[in-house]
Amino acid sequence: MRTFAYASCGLLWAQCAFSATVVVNPNASDAYQDLASAAAALSAGDTLWLAPESGPYREVLHIRASGTEARPIIIEGNGNEITGFEPLVFVEGRCFPSVAYPFVLRHQGQRVMESEAHGFSHGIRYDAKQGRLELLPGISPEGWEISTRDFVLRIQDASYQQYRDLVVSGSLNDGINLHGEGRGLSFTGLTACQNLDEGFSSHGSIQCSIRESLFYENDNGLLNGFQTDTTLEQVVVRDNLGIGLAFNGEATVQASQVELWGNGLVQLLLRAQVQLTFDEVTVYKNHHETRAWKTYNETARWSHPKTLDIGSIELEADELAIVDACCP
What is the topology classification, in CATH, of domain 149-323? Predict the structure, then answer.
């Protein structure tokens, strides 16, 4: 469904700018049924509106159109989840996943952690030779999901898109992946969780802001690099399996009211080329003495947990507070 409005601009009708609200609701016959078709209908000034409680959306959101500074494209998530997870169906306690290992498993909304020594938790094991998942005796087959998509939210060479109140989960790679050139990209009320690589990762020349957001149970919470410019405000990065928050390359970051804790290997990683402005950034000490969970990609071979990995970068007490406790 598309509803239209026009801006009263004091000019002739033909010169006024139209905008549309593009509604997605699989439960309503007069709305778009999926994200892909709705995203293809968007142009500058439009709003993509996901009906409350209409998800989860088990597909990729990739909006190719750009907005403008005056007329951004707005994505109103209304708390819906966009996910790479698909339900698992067990027959006599067994199933054969459609995707190759490694993958993320989720049970009743919680990531199933994996250790080097003991494999998956939650009463499930993976037989690599058979490509088979098996439930241990007494474990319910209900509520199991597996990651199936490489990305969940993609931005490629697009600008002036505003994302609000979304949950992004279950990717085989980055939950939110930004590439190429882009400006005026903003995320408010975002939750990125349970992705096999980063919850949020930007590369290339991307300028974005992230506010009032949470990153947890990803391999890494947030990792931006190259010539990216990132603003963080009121952000929590916790309980990711590898790195919490990281910036490298020639990245620029402005961070205020950011909290980091419970991440498995490193709470905060910075490389020397990074230009940063920190204010009220709080890091809780890493309480892990050895690797707690199995991770992949950037941290697959890391073995010694630490609180900070910032090289020669010097941070003052008013820029970065280190708290002796393991979590708030």
Answer: Pectate Lyase C-like (2.160.20)
